[in-house]
Design brief:
about 280 residues; single chain; seven-stranded mixed sheet; BirA Bifunctional Protein, domain 2; alpha+beta
């Protein structure tokens, strides 16, 4: 079982780490099947870009700002006058936040760009969320998310997410994970009544939920929201976008639930993945 060095912060033991790697390799293969090219996304996100994306209207509770110590605090620590920063030491903002989802950084990297052909990119990122509680590998403060992002036409998004759905369901079936596809209540952009109502009528995010209620993957249709907010153009119009997301540790959790033991889970998973 994983070791937790802080609430919601896990270290995977060797067999769990091997299971993580085997899954991540397959997730990369699915992204490649969707035509995605591999990039390395940013580790931090500028506060001003998150504001443009209504992040602070929709998810203020999840944000984890990145700060640095003031000169006074550094001096006191360096002189050994205190052993740790205290609440009396105000922090200085860096203007950045830790990412809560991999695709934010991918989308920001495409800001003010224009495309004549669809852009499909993938990355795995370390993500961070300030949740109200943490629960094993099901809900972590720090976790990994593999995403495959499509930017292009409205029809292209539909096709990308349809193919992604088939691939997720196929992988879950191959690995013996029972999942159900459910509309989610936390799409990337909400905030006013009209958009919230539109999401009820035409859901933009669907989750793949395992037997114990863990959402292990999702498909997200952004409409042209990010295209408009970030100035991303496709064929002379605001681009449409959508993404497939895998919560890597959550898949590890789901396989541990199926097999009950890391070693059995690893052996069974590697055997099944060789069939792909």
């Amino acid at each position: 079982m994983p070791t937790f060095v802080a609430p919601g912060v896990a270290v995977l033991e060797p067999e769990e780490a091997a299971l993580f790697d085997a899954l991540e390799t397959r997730f990369q293969g699915i992204a490649a099947a969707l035509g995605a090219r591999q990039v390395a996304g940013p580790a931090l996100l500028p506060e001003e870009d998150l504001a443009r994306l209504d992040f602070f209207r929709n998810f203020p509770h999840l944000g984890l700002p990145v700060a640095t110590l003031t000169d006074r605090a550094r001096g006191e620590l360096a002189r050994g006058e205190v052993s740790t920063p205290s609440p009396e030491h105000p922090l200085a903002s860096t203007g950045c936040y830790l990412p809560t989802a991999t695709c934010y950084g991918l989308l920001v990297s495409l800001k003010e760009r224009a495309f004549e052909t669809p852009e499909v990119i993938t990355s795995v990122g370390r993500c961070f969320r300030n949740e109200d509680h943490y629960d094993g590998l099901r809900r972590l403060r720090a976790f990994h998310m593999r995403e495959a992002l499509y930017v292009g036409s409205q029809e292209g998004v539909v096709d990308h997410l349809s193919r992604a759905t088939e691939l997720v369901l196929g992988l879950a079936d191959l690995l013996g994970i029972k999942v159900r596809r459910e509309p989610a209540t936390d799409p990337f952009y909400l905030g006013d009544g009209s958009r919230a109502l539109l999401n009820q009528l035409d859901p933009v995010k669907f989750e793949f939920v395992s037997d114990d209620g863990t959402a292990i993957a999702s498909v997200n249709r952004h409409r042209n929201f990010f295209g408009e907010r970030l100035g991303i153009r496709f064929a002379d119009e605001s681009a449409y976008s959508g993404c497939l997301a895998f919560g890597v540790e959550r898949w590890v959790h789901a396989l541990l639930q199926v097999h009950g033991d890391p070693q059995r889970a690893l052996i069974a998973t590697k055997r099944q993945l060789r069939k792909v």
